[in-house]
Design goal:
43% helix; 6 strands; two-stranded parallel ribbon; alpha+beta
Length: 220
């Protein structure tokens, strides 16, 4: 086997992951042209084909079956000057692998869990008219809803979301006082604990709803 006429490639100049100098194993290298692992024979890359189709010509260069796999790779018979020892190659390979491992984070990245939408019974009473309008519209024969591009549904959902945010923290001191009073009342009232609010509990809740609606009408 004769070399391809190119200048030899020094093993010390190659990437360590493109060379294999393991003991008790055949020496191998990555072909600089086709970038595939090839065996080294007498410090030269074994002749091989690169898979590129060869155009048919009228000239017959061989008898019998033609070789498959395309043309002869230009990297065939490339000389590799082994100017490093297997120990030096192994140290360089370990250094490259440790550097790559250091760039990978060991801390797992957790995706936030999607928060479930609150149930209708957990939503404020101020959103009930909007929710009723949304339910009525969804039951109608709306062609835009079938296509998933209904502006009315988007508007109602945005208004419900905005109402929930405003009702959750209205900017009025009296609302906070009423909320505290309602919590204390429910903690000491047996009917309210059992889910059947008394008159006092209903009055406190109605006042909170009225304040929230008034705040919503001013900020809308």
């Amino acid at each position: 086997m004769r070399h391809n006429g190119r200048a030899p490639i020094k093993a010390s100049a190659m990437r360590p992951e493109h060379l294999s100098l393991r003991e008790n194993e055949p020496r191998m290298a990555v072909c600089p042209d086709c970038l595939r692992w090839r065996r080294l024979t007498r410090s030269m890359i074994t002749p091989h084909r690169d898979g590129v189709a060869v155009p048919k010509t009228g000239e017959r260069r061989c008898f019998g079956d033609k070789p498959v796999g395309g043309r002869r790779c230009p990297g065939s018979a490339q000389r590799i000057d082994i100017d490093i020892t297997p120990e030096q190659w192994r140290e360089r390979l370990l250094a490259v692998e440790s550097t790559a491992a250091g760039r990978r984070t060991a801390r797992p990245i957790r995706k936030p869990r999607p928060q479930a939408a609150p149930a209708p019974v957990q939503m404020p009473a101020a959103t009930r008219p909007l929710r009723e309008q949304l339910a009525e519209h969804l039951q109608s024969e709306c062609p835009r809803c079938r296509a998933g591009r209904c502006a009315r549904v988007i508007e109602l959902r945005q208004r419900i979301r905005r109402t929930v945010q405003i009702v959750a923290a209205p900017a009025t001191p009296i609302y906070g006082q009423l909320r505290t009073a309602l919590r204390e009342h429910r903690a000491s009232c047996t009917p309210c604990k059992n889910g059947a609010p008394c008159d006092a509990g209903r009055q406190l809740a109605a006042r909170m709803t009225g304040i929230a609606r008034d705040h919503l009408s001013r900020t809308a």
